[in-house]
Amino acid sequence: MTDVLILGGGPAGAVLARRLTGLGHGVTLVTCARRPAVEGLSLRAVEGLRRAGCLEAVAAAGMPAARRVDWNGLHTALNGEHLVDRSRLDAALLRDASAGAVALSHGTAAAVRRGKDGWLAVDAAGTMLGSGRFLVEARGRRAPNAPARESGPRTLAVGRLYLGPTGNMGGEMGSAAFSFADGWAWLAALPDGRRIVQLVIDGAESPARADLTAWHAATVASLPQAAGWIAGCAPMGEAEVRDATAIRRSPGVEADRLRIGDAAFAVDPLSGHGVYAAVAWAFAAAAAVNTLAADPTALPAVERFVEDRCAGLFAHAADAGKQFYRTEERWSGRPFWRRRAAWPPAPLPTADRGIRRRAVVVNDRIEERPVLVTPALPRGVLAIDGVELGPLLDSVASDRRLDGDLAQRCGRQLGQPPGRVAVALAWLANNGFLPGGAKPPSAMTTTTKNVNS
Fold first, then answer.
1. Which residues partner with 189 through β-bridges?
2. Which of 85, 125, 372, 453 is the most exposed place for a label (fewest CB within 10 A)?
3. Which of 279, 246, 245, 273 lies closest to 261 in space, CA to CA?
4. Is 316 helix (H, G, I), strand (E, B) or coil?
5. 108-139 pLDDT, tens per residue?
6. How large is the C-alpha radius of gyration of the chain?
7. What value, to the nearest 5°, has the Cα angle with vertex 161 and ends 202 and 212?
8. pTM, whole model, 2 decimals?
């Protein structure tokens, strides 16, 4: 039995597994093959994989491809995205996990139960796939359902692969997205000749499953941009549908269990936050698991941290999607666009300003510390350049002179180098937090370093 049993070898599960082995935990990662698919990864999602040490996955993502967007009658070229064969990416993630001393187990977990000493996962034949004292559910939307906290309009993504000559488009990768009356389309082309046309529609408008392929073909034929994308290509099988509804579930935090990635919350694909959010969630989850393994009594703080982080990531992704949907005004009265322009119904709450006590990550452990909350940083800032802002503000408040030697005096009081204190004071001054109109010393800069939250 290992320390941690993770179910699901996608980006969230693989990144978490590597992070935990790096912290000294034994990890078993149970994974199974998924359906072939082509996906787009944002630039920062790939950078998150790089930060996690998943260099095989970064290599599999390759160079970003050109991307164009036709939306509300405007034609733009954005920063690009990495187009990946999902099977190839998952295989690379498993190599990264194995290189990080993660024990791999291949199979589909049909049952998961608590045993005498921990969690056990078995397949349909009753064969043991893995065990661990702590269970992490990372199987995405395939995970057994947990209670839904909130969800957006039911959304489906209907995609179909095509194969054309490799010389089409010069053999180069590229992607495009465009809106139409009843949804939006994502198009991708790979150098090996594969093309994908994915239509994102409202769940209420979905055809019967038996009619899916015919519906997809007819819709593509009616959309000149989509039809042109696959000109000269032959279909590779039938159209397939997947749930793309934005949904946030309970992360199910217990002293020995946690849900991460899409198993905890899944976002609308238009937000562009999917894989990035999964990777970011894995970094946070590593601190949660590490904390509970060392101190189960820290569960209340971990619960607050996980719930706040889950709700925050989901809310920001939902708001990003809503704002983009609202920019398409040509079909604002159509059901698809009307529902998404109205969800979520409330705007993001505006954070207050000041020192608040929050659960934050400190040295890969979750602790409750005073952080400085601002509207731009609602989760709060713990430290600037290694100098915690709560104690620094207390030191500033006790100083009566607030002159050019402030960094020296506060540094002595806090046991911090004056140069670092000067950077933190400059950040406080630039954000209006120094009392009584105090000015930062002239040597201070506006550079912000190591903002921790």
1. 174, 195
2. 125
3. 279
4. helix
5. 999 999 988 999 999 999 999 999 999 999 99
6. 24
7. 40
8. 0.90
